[in-house]
Amino acid sequence: MAADDQAEPSLESAAVEQRLIDQLVVQARSKGLQPAGEGGLLQQLTKTVLESVLEGEITDRLGYDKHGRAGKDGGNSRNGTRSKTVLTDIGPVEIDVPRDREGLFEPAIVKKGQRRLTGVDEMVLSLSAKGLTHGEISAHLAEVYGASASKMTISTITDKVMDGMGEWQNRPLDRVCPVVFIDAVNVKIRDGQVANRPVYVALAVTAEGHRDILGLWAGDGGEGAKHWLRVLSELKNRGFEDVLMLVCDGLKGLPDAVGEVWART
Questions:
Q1: Separation between Cα atoms, residue 138 and residue 150, nearest integer Å
Q2: What distance in Å separates the CA atoms of residue 61 and residue 23, rounded to the nearest whole number?
Q3: Alpha carbon distance 139, 231 (integer Å)
Q4: Hey, how many other C-beta atoms are within 10 angstroms of the C-beta on 151?
Q5: For 34-49, what is each residue's pLDDT tens digit?
Q6: Across 101-231, where does the E strand assignment appear?
Q7: Residue ranges of the domains in the chain?
Q8: Is the separation of the CB atoms in 160 and 107 below 8 Å?
Q9: Alpha-carbon distance 127 to 132, whole Å?
């Protein structure tokens, strides 16, 4: 399969400039979400990327995918996960580290006993926020692992990162959500040529009081209610049957789009 064919839609939007990262952080803060704090945007993405990389490492080590039939044929196999908190540039992040039955698996991205990671925020933003292609992610991970990993290992890990980001973008949601904040920020995106495009951001406050970034979507042209209708419909299809309160600006047609998806919101 070609590299571009493997990329999820959320990762196919071409390279996004540093301005996008800066504005997304500002946008998150304006909605009450601390990008580097508990439940923040970078923390969520860091957890997703690190766990995806670890899954790629153990898949390469054992030679079969998670839940694969090869794991039932004897020999060493997966043995669940263990929780570990690592200190990163954007604060503490709790991750699930996969284990093997014989205790031979030695993660390279988060070594045994290692509690502090440096530069991980740059890696996560490169992988998740800039819309890198499959080949660009492979090149980035090759720099992280250096000569200690083969091309096959890097390819396996890259596949898991792509899968992990796709799962994060499309993860199931609760049936009812108390509050959702939505807004778009116009940024310059390089897609052949530099042009202003809206990036749509949706933030939920869960019933437990946690803040949760629901997704990021790159649109075409200016911000529009029709594109918001597609975004809101996607959130409903992922599980949100009802949203009690939705906070948005006065974009023309947006209240009608909200009412079409959630009539009582």
A1: 11
A2: 39
A3: 31
A4: 9
A5: 555 565 667 777 888 8
A6: 176-191, 193-205, 211-218
A7: 3-169, 176-261
A8: no
A9: 6
